[in-house]
Amino acid sequence: MRRQQVFLVIERTSFSVLMIRLARIGARKKPYYRIVVIEKDRARNGRSVEVVGTYNPRTSPATVNLKQDRIEHWVSKGAKMSETVSKLVSKQAQPAEPAPAA
Questions:
Q1: Contact criterion met (CB below 8 Å) for 21 and 2
Q2: Residues sharing a CB contact under 8 Å with residue 98, sequence separation 6 or more, in sequence order
Q3: pTM for this structure?
Q4: How far, in Å, are 10, 79, 97 from residue 87 at the CA level?
Q5: Can you list the residues of the chain whose pLDDT is less than 70?
Q6: How far apart are alpha carbons 18 and 79 in whole angstroms?
């Protein structure tokens, strides 16, 4: 009599929280950051899903380049912004104050 083996297939659903945070790419003592969409449990400079901007604190004033449409897209999909990135985004979203008329 033959034995039948039964294999159970367990579906793996990997639910991961996405974060929009900084990833440092600058040299030693010369910080330069990418603003990336990345899984929360990955390392700071791990593989990211998408690069949505850059931040250079060494210029005066600090340079921030953002892809607003992509950030809005990922936030609508459930990505959370880190505290630092949310501050950068809110500063970028504020309209520049007009110069006083002389």
A1: no
A2: none
A3: 0.74
A4: 42, 16, 18
A5: 1-15, 95-102
A6: 5
| C-alpha pair distances (Å), 88 with each of 3, 18, 33, 68 | 64, 18, 12, 11
Task: Tell me the pairing of strands 18-24 and 80-81.
Answer: parallel
Domains of the chain by range and CATH?
18-84 (3.30.1320.10)
20-43 residue pLDDT tens:
999 999 899 999 999 999 998 888
DSSP string, 42-88: S-TTS--SEEEEEEETTSSSPEEEE-HHHHHHHHHTTPEEPHHHHHH
Paired tokens of 83: 């505290």
Q: Are 31 and 93 in contact (CB under 8 A)?
A: no
The one-letter amino acid code at 40 reads: K
Residue 15: what residue type?
F
